[in-house]
Design a protein that fits this description.
mainly beta, eleven-stranded mixed β-sheet, two-stranded antiparallel ribbon
C-alpha cells in the first residue's frame, strides 16, 4: 500500500514539473476600460516581456457602426469590421455588398477597389486606414452621419470624418454626430466623393 502511494506521489510531482515548464514566463494580461461619447468599451490587451517591445496595433479585432439619417424613420446603417486576416478589397463571402433600394437614404462604405459595402471586413494596422463613404439621398435637406458604436478599437486610434465638400473634419470619438446639407442639383454634395472616414494611429 505504501509503495502504491509513493508511486502516485512521484507521478504527481513529475506531472507538476512538466506543466510548470510549459508556462511562459513574464506574461501579463491587462484589462483597460476606455470611455467614448455614448459608448463604453472594455479592451483586453496582452503583453509578453521578451526583452524587446512588441507592437500589437496590427491585431485589432473590433468594429464601427455608422448610420445615415434624415429623421428617426428614414435611416440606413453600415458595419465596418476590423480583422487582421481580412482583405481591404472586396471578397465575396467576407464582405456584404450594399444594394441600392428605394429608401429615402442609402449609406455604404467603399472597399479599396471601390465596391460599395453594407458590411466591410478589413484589416486595421498601425498605418491606419482611409475608408470612403457613399451617401445617396432622394431630396434636398439636412442629414446626419452618426457614429453609433465603437467597439474594441483602441483609443490610440483617432476616428475622423472628413467632408471634402465643406473642407471640414470632425473627431467622431468626441462628437459622434455630423449634420450636413445635401443639394440634389449639386452632385458633389452627395455620392461617393464627399465623405471619408480616416483612422490614424497616434
Amino acid at each position: 500500500m505504501k509503495r502504491e502511494i509513493s508511486g502516485l506521489l512521484m507521478i504527481g510531482v513529475m506531472f507538476f514539473s512538466c506543466a510548470k515548464e510549459q508556462v511562459k514566463p513574464n506574461t501579463t494580461t491587462t484589462q483597460v476600460t476606455t470611455q467614448t461619447t455614448g459608448t463604453s468599451q472594455t479592451l483586453q490587451t496582452g503583453s509578453t516581456n521578451t526583452g524587446s517591445s512588441t507592437t500589437t496595433t496590427d491585431d485589432v479585432n473590433g468594429y464601427l457602426r455608422v448610420k445615415l439619417a434624415k429623421d428617426s424613420i428614414n435611416t440606413d446603417g453600415i458595419l465596418i469590421e476590423f480583422n487582421p486576416a481580412a482583405s481591404a478589397a472586396y471578397v465575396a463571402g467576407e464582405d456584404a455588398p450594399s444594394l441600392q433600394g428605394f429608401g429615402v437614404v442609402s449609406l455604404a462604405s467603399l472597399s479599396s477597389n471601390n465596391i460599395p459595402l453594407a458590411i466591410n471586413e478589413m484589416p486595421l494596422t498601425a498605418k491606419g486606414a482611409s475608408i470612403g463613404l457613399r451617401v445617396n439621398v432622394k431630396s434636398d435637406g439636412v442629414y446626419t452621419l452618426n457614429m453609433q458604436q465603437i467597439n474594441a478599437v483602441p483609443s490610440t486610434y483617432s476616428l475622423w470624418l472628413m467632408d471634402g465638400y465643406k473642407k471640414d473634419s470632425l473627431d467622431m470619438r468626441l462628437y459622434p454626430t455630423y449634420a450636413f446639407n445635401v443639394y440634389t442639383a449639386d452632385t458633389t454634395s452627395f455620392g461617393s466623393h464627399r465623405f471619408k472616414l480616416v483612422i490614424k494611429h497616434q
